[in-house]
Amino acid sequence: MIKKLRGGNMQNENHNEILNEDFKIVQQNVSEFQDDFKLSKSGFDTTMPGHTTNHPQNMVLRQQPRTVRSEGSGISLPADVRLEMGLMLDDHLCALNVALHQYTKHHWLTEGAESFLSLHHLLDEHIDVTQDHIDRVGERVARLGVVPTAHPVTQHELSYIKHEVEGRYTMRDFLRNDLEHEIKIQHMLRKTIARAHELKDFGTVQVLEEVLLKREDLGYHLWSVLEDDSLVRGMKHFFDGNNDISKTRPINPRIQ
């Protein structure tokens, strides 16, 4: 359904498919996605958040951030291959942390007939899966001899997905933003898997193929929830101008 365009964008192949408004918004945002890895970001950078501090430093520096050990990683791949793969993986690590924070916010703010229980548990599952993927990817970065990014502000700066703006929005807005994240993460994982095959880094291939398969499951969950079908009555009464939102009247109008 989603394919890569020249210049690193993606679009929906089937223009005749009827999509609801949420899917149209996701499709539009994904079509504008710039799928670039930050391979030039290696070592200390005074302009990068999290790379400088005003506090006295009493630590012994052994390796700069997002750099690779020339020897001693224990993995028989050239240092340049380990660095390239490590930087791509670190970008995924940053993106997964952004996704985790957004999922956590949505988990806290679930409400409504379909959200308070079912979506609360669904998002709880997505959080658990994402935490596991963060650990797997971070471990692979370290095993390749690269220093993974851990500072939360630095992670957001390096991430190819960005957290939604602060505030409470509708549950459909929340899930739509999460779906957009998942589609972008899947696309970037496929790019790294393809590159890892070229460089014969089959360990990274195995790690990311397992992660990708599960991210596709998460995306499918979100897509299915956003489909135009429901077991509850429509929400038109919120917007019909009759001022009959439940907080302004008893749930049963006959109850006085």
From TrEMBL:
Gene3D superfamilies: 1.20.1260.10
GO MF annotation list: DNA binding; ferric iron binding; oxidoreductase activity, acting on metal ions
NAD recorded as keyword: no
Domain annotation Ferritin/DPS: ranges: 89-228
A Pfam family of this chain: Ferritin
Superkingdom assignment: Bacteria
InterPro entries attached to this UniProt entry: DPS_DNA-bd, DPS_DNA-bd_CS, Ferritin-like, Ferritin-like_SF, Ferritin_DPS_dom
Record's keyword terms, sorted: DNA-binding
Family indicated by similarity: Belongs to the Dps family.
Protein name per its UniProtKB record: DNA-binding ferritin-like protein
Species of the source: Serpentinicella alkaliphila
Organism classification: Bacteria, Bacillati, Bacillota, Clostridia, Peptostreptococcales
